[in-house]
Fold this sequence. Notes:
The complex is a heterodimer. Chain A has helices spanning about 1-5, 10-25, 35-50, 60-80, 85-110, 115-135, 140-160, 165-190, 205-220, 225-230, 235-240, 245-270. By secondary structure, chain A is an all-alpha fold. Chain A has one domain. Chain B has one domain: Lipid/polyisoprenoid-binding, YceI-like (Lipocalin, Beta Barrel). Helix content of chain B is about 15%, strand content about 55%. Chain B contains two helices and eleven strands; from the N terminus they run H-E-E-E-E-E-E-H-E-E-E-E-E. Chain B has helices spanning about 1-20, 80-85; strands at about 20-25, 30-40, 40-50, 50-60, 65-70, 75, 100-110, 115-125, 125-140, 150-160, 175-185. In chain B, a hairpin with a 2-residue loop joins strand 8 and strand 9 (about 125-140). The interface between A and B is medium-sized, with 24 and 19 residues.
Amino acid sequence: xxxxxxxxxxxxxxxxxLIALVVYLGLQKLTATAWLWALLAAFLGSAALINGLxxxxxxxxxxxxxxxxxxxxxxxxxxxxxPNRNLQRRFxxxxxxxxxxxxxxxxxTRMDSAAMxxxxxxxxxxxxxxxxxxxxxxxxxxxxxxxxxxxLLGVGLSTTVAAxxxxxxxxxxxxxxxxxxFLGWVLIxxxxxxxxxxxxxxxxxxxxxxxxxxxxxxxxxxxxxxxVPLALIPFAVSLVPQKTESRFLHALLSSLPGLVxxxxxxxxxxxxxxxxxxx
Amino acid sequence: MKKxxxxxxxxxLPLKAVLAxxxxxxxxxxxxxxxxxxxxxxxxxxxxxxxxxxMQFDPAxxxxxxxxEIDATSIDTGHDKRDAxxxxxxxxxxxxxxxxxxxxxxxxxxxxxxxxxxxDLTILGxxxxxxxxxxxxxxxxxxxxxxxxxxxxxxxxxxxSDYGVNYGLPAIGEVxxxxxxVEASK
Lengths: 279, 186
């Protein structure tokens, strides 16, 4: 069993997918945010298998895991405390930027001024684009999850081929978890209505790809420009017309644009990093 | 005037004693290399190309210490892509932890020569005690630059999981065999 659970495909695909599906199916009658709890449970399980859940030493990767977990709690609980939607949007943007600074502070302090400015401009832009485009799809479950799955899949695949399996596995685990919750929604919908109607509920989908993508650029060798098309996935998905009653067709149509972009970016990164040579 | 000369000479004595014991590591003749089992097929070898540090050595007083700082980004296994992977968060996370350090805490002697050096090896922010066995040592005047020079070869081993480097276990070996050659002069 231990050998089975140590396999990357089990840790990053099978386990999170199954956990998310089961939790979603179990909770969808109880709460509109069943998908958030499903993703949280799945990510906790995967992160424990991939990297363990110890906090010391508090490396950048461990900070990322901690922040992603915190983002799920924030997304679920904050609407009760902060019902104003504009405030939620500002909170999402500011909190995401603070999170990025916290994770990469040690590296930032060693950068020269020009590099630091580029980092700040780049990460602020990334967070703003993700936040703006995910809020566009927040009230459409198929588009929200289609964008989430594709974006995380793109970050995961690109990061894995760009020299960090650890970061890639974390992103792929979240993608698989999103896929599991998405399948649950396709099968039975959500008995409690809208799966996400508050802007802050998209914070996990904004923060996780931003943290993992930027970490792959800074700590591994993902080219920064790979994040540009990936960041536009939610916007591309938002352009899909909402004219079908079938949840299955809706899910398929909402996933396609994002999946095409995600796979194209991963292939591009693979080719440009000479991954085919192996070692 | 005589008094001044005597006082100055006496004042310099302890300073001379300190300076005499301090050796600066010669990065051009210091090598930190390792070997690790690769998937059970063969032994993979690598080294670090940049290191610095200092050594104190006083065999008369049976006192010695070694401090080495290794640039984690200088890892070299002869394959660019593998070196990039080794510097990623999967292994050394060299961007976040650019320096590996070894700071000795105790030594044992074999006559006037070091027999072993025990110290704290710090990788990824985790410090663990490691004992290096000194297999050869010589201190003499360097024939070319005429400096007092000491050099030694040492071996040891560590478990990378002790430092949180768990990627690829157990397929990629857990034990790293270390081989260190140091030359230092003053």
